[in-house]
Amino acid sequence: MSPEDLPQVLAIENLCYSTPWSLNSFRYETGNKEAFLKVGVYNGQITGYVCVRTILDLTHLMNIAVAPEFRRKGIASMLLKDVIGELKRLKPDTRLTLEVRQSNIAAIRFYERFGFKTTGKRNGYYQSPPDNAIIMELDISAR
């Protein structure tokens, strides 16, 4: 993901999330040396993106989204596989963590297919609409 991608990324973000990241949040992450951000592109159009950041021995999947018209075409899987592959190469001893809405059963199942395990819960984590967060983790060294 480059700064030039941000208008398309922000448009997808605003379609996908009830409390979307700001342009400044994406700008910050594109300049963060401990973060890597990737986009999926089809015919020159950004179809999805993923944002990941490492802090010490823990890596956090901060954001992943696919434009509604491109869902169920394997884009999120491709992005997540790419992230896992890169982590295996660059940070093989890390763990990849994430939070997901407790009510988002499809997303929880998606992460489980990649080997993520539920490790906890954060009550009241999400606003607009209110929801709990399920904490999930993937041990990259075990992949």
Number of strands: 6
Number of domains: 1
Q: Globular, elongated, flat, extended or rod-shaped: what is the shape? A: globular
Question: CATH class, anyone?
Answer: Alpha Beta
> Can you tell me the CATH topology?
Aminopeptidase
What strand order characterises the main sheet?
1-2-3-4-6-5
The CATH superfamily name is Gcn5-related N-acetyltransferase (GNAT)
Question: In the CATH hierarchy, what is the architecture at level 2?
Answer: 3-Layer(aba) Sandwich
Termini separation (Å)?
25 Å
pLDDT < 50 runs, ≥5 residues: none
Structural class assignment: alpha+beta
Give the strand content: 35-45%
Q: Write the element-wise H/E pattern from the N-terminal end onward.
A: HHEEEHEHEE
Supply Rg. 15 Å
Average pLDDT reading: 95
Roughly what percent helix? Answer: 25-40%
The number of helical runs is: 4
Largest sheet: 6 strands, mixed
Structure, explained:
- The protein has a single domain, classed as Gcn5-related N-acetyltransferase (GNAT) (Aminopeptidase, 3-Layer(aba) Sandwich), CATH 3.40.630.
- A six-stranded mixed β-sheet has the order 1-2-3-4-6-5.
- The chain is globular.
- The chain contains four helices and six strands, in the order ααβββαβαββ.
Please supply descriptive tags for the structure shown above.
Aminopeptidase, 6-stranded mixed beta sheet, 143 residues, single chain, 4 helices, 31% helix, alpha+beta, 6 strands, 38% strand
List the helices and strands and how they pair.
Elements: H1 6-16, H2 23-30, E1 35-42, E2 45-55, E3 58-66, H3 75-90, E4 95-101, H4 105-113, E5 117-126, E6 131-139
Parallel strand pairs: 3-4
Antiparallel strand pairs: 1-2, 2-3, 4-6, 5-6
